[in-house]
Amino acid sequence: METKIIHVGDIEKDKQAITAAAQMLIAGELVAMPTETVYGLAANGMDELAVKKLYEAKQRPGYKAFSLQVPDVSMVNDIAQQVPDMAWQLFEKFCPGPITIVLPKKNTVPRVVTGGKKTVGIRIPANDIALAVLKAAGVPLAVPSANISAHPSPTSAQMVYDDMQGLIPLILDGGPCNLGIESTIVDCTGDEPVIIRQGAISEKKILDCINNKD
Which residues of 92-109 are buried (b: 16+ CB within 10 A; e: fewer)? Predict the structure, then answer.
């Protein structure tokens, strides 16, 4: 498989590239794209075959869940069975941004996305290219880091190409990522938030938000 890199410098001027990427995703293909944290490898999160391609490309065990990215909070209720107040507080305070919020999933979310779990992580990235692709695709996208499992998370299109050349058809090059560190994952399925992965947003900021201290 040939891996193509398309540079996207301006969302308005490069609409054709965004549209092409979205059409590929809807058709079940994989597309690497920048986020504010690291480069992500996107697949249509509602398409089981596309998600299976994602596992294969990353050489990732099937029990490890993928989170879903959406363009804005209006799509959260399409994915989550329940959204407690503390989750809405986090969405309002930190989104778009480097936070992934874990909630009970609706049955419409394929089990292959969540590794068979009854919960799903939801994220709204703070990157214009990623948001444009998400809006154009119109579906939640499964977006782990764009690297083979256990390899370093990529912060540039070249790093993605070096690791995944021949495994994916398209990389959108939006330049280096702003943060270079993964999102903070917060489980909001219980009575209190639980930090599953420390990331770009500190635990203190998470707790201060929920406790209305900020």
Answer: ebbbbbbbbbbbbbeeeb
CA distance 173 to 158: 8
Cβ partners under 8 Å of residue 27, min gap 6:
none
Q: Which residue has the tokens 């119109």?
A: 138
Interval 119-153: pLDDT, tens: 999 999 999 999 999 999 999 999 999 999 999 99
> Phi, psi (5° rounding) for residue 181?
-135, 145
Q: What is the pLDDT of residue 70?
A: 98
Contact residues for 115 (Cβ-Cβ < 8 A; gap 6+): 62, 63, 64, 65, 66
Q: Find residue 119's DSSP bridge partners.
A: 104
pLDDT digits (tens, 9 = 90+) for 45-81: 999 999 999 999 999 998 899 999 999 999 999 999 9
Closest by CA position to 133, among listed 207, 66, 42, 65: 42
Which pLDDT belongs to residue 142?
Answer: 98
Nearest to 68 by CA among 143, 139, 134, 133: 143
- Residue 137 near residue 22, CB atoms below 8 Å: yes
Give the integer Cα–Cα distance in Å for 77 and 101: 13
